[in-house]
Amino acid sequence: MNKQTHNKIKALTEELSNLLTSFKFAEVWTVAGALNATLKTATDEDSVVVEAKRELRNYYHISSEISTLNKRLVGKGHRLAEIASKL
After folding, report:
1. Which pLDDT band, with edges at 50, 70 and 90, does 73 fall under?
2. Nearest by Cα to 60 from 22, 23, 16, 8
């Protein structure tokens, strides 16, 4: 991996970390996508790159779970609206 790619991965990983730990979840998706694209260009598979890829994959999995739960909550809201209309 060249120095420029290494520096970009480091900067994006730090930015993603800061956004997540600052609860700025609306901004995370774009940075995660940029990090994912950059990680795909990394030709060597040193342990840190592998670890970053694994953590990013875990982030996407958790994000998907949250999306599913949000949809279920919206469904509960619709159901409560139906109940309220009957009262």
Report:
1. very high
2. 16
